[in-house]
Amino acid sequence: MAFDKRNFWVERKGYEKDTFVGEDGLIENPHPDYHVFLLRAYIHSGVALSLGTEYPFNDSWDSGWIGYVLVSKAEWPDPLKARLAALAEVETWNQYLSGDIWGYVVEKVESCDLGHEHATEMDSCWGFYGEETAKEAGEALLKAYQEEVAA
C-alpha cells in the first residue's frame, strides 16, 4: 500500500496508481478488456467504499481514492450495467467491512416432562451478506421442514 497526502492505494503490477487516471483524477487510459471505475474509501471509525464523490467520500481528511473496480467488458458489455455490477460489488464489500454478515439456526423445540422446553438444532448456515438475506434463507428452510413434517 502506498499513499500521498490523503490518497492511498494498493499497488499491483500492471495496475499502478496512474495506470488509468491522469493528473486531473479522470480516467484517461481506458482498459481494452475492462470497464474501469474509480474506487474511493472513507476511513473514520470504520471503512466504507464508494464509486462516487459525494460526502463523506469527498472529505479531504478522511477519504481518498484507493484504486479501481474493473468489470469485464466480455461479461458486462453495456457500460451502465457494468457500473451497476460494480456498485453491487462495492455494496457487498461494505457489508463485509461493516460486519453486516449473518446466519440462521433452525431448531426443533420439544416440551420435556417437567414443562421445560428443549431445542434441537436441525440446521444452520452462516455467511449471508445482509440480515434480510439470512432471514429469507432461514424462513425458506423452516417452511421446507414444516412441509416435510406435515406430509
Strand and helix map with partners:
Elements: E1 2-4, E2 7-9, E3 34-43, E4 47-50, E5 63-72, H1 79-98, E6 101-111, E7 117-129, H2 131-150
Antiparallel strand pairs: 1-2, 3-4, 3-5, 6-7
Uncertain spans: none
The count of domains is 2
CA-based shape: elongated
Which structural category do the helix and sheet elements fall into? Answer: alpha+beta
Q: Helix segment count? A: 2
Largest sheet descriptor: 3 strands, antiparallel
Helix content: 25-40%
Structure commentary:
Strands 4-3-5 form a three-stranded antiparallel β-sheet, with helices on one face. Strands 1-2 form a two-stranded antiparallel sheet. Strands 6-7 form a two-stranded antiparallel sheet. 12% of the residues are buried. The termini are far apart. The protein has two domains: 2-98, no CATH class; 101-150, no CATH class. By secondary structure, it is an alpha+beta fold. The chain has helices at residues 79-98, 131-150; strands at residues 2-4, 7-9, 34-43, 47-50, 63-72, 101-111, 117-129.
In short:
This protein has helices at residues 79-98, 131-150, and strands spanning 2-4, 7-9, 34-43, 47-50, 63-72, 101-111, 117-129. The protein is an alpha+beta fold and 151 residues long. The strands form 3 sheets. A 3-stranded antiparallel β-sheet has the order 4-3-5, covered by helices on one side. A two-stranded antiparallel ribbon has the order 1-2.
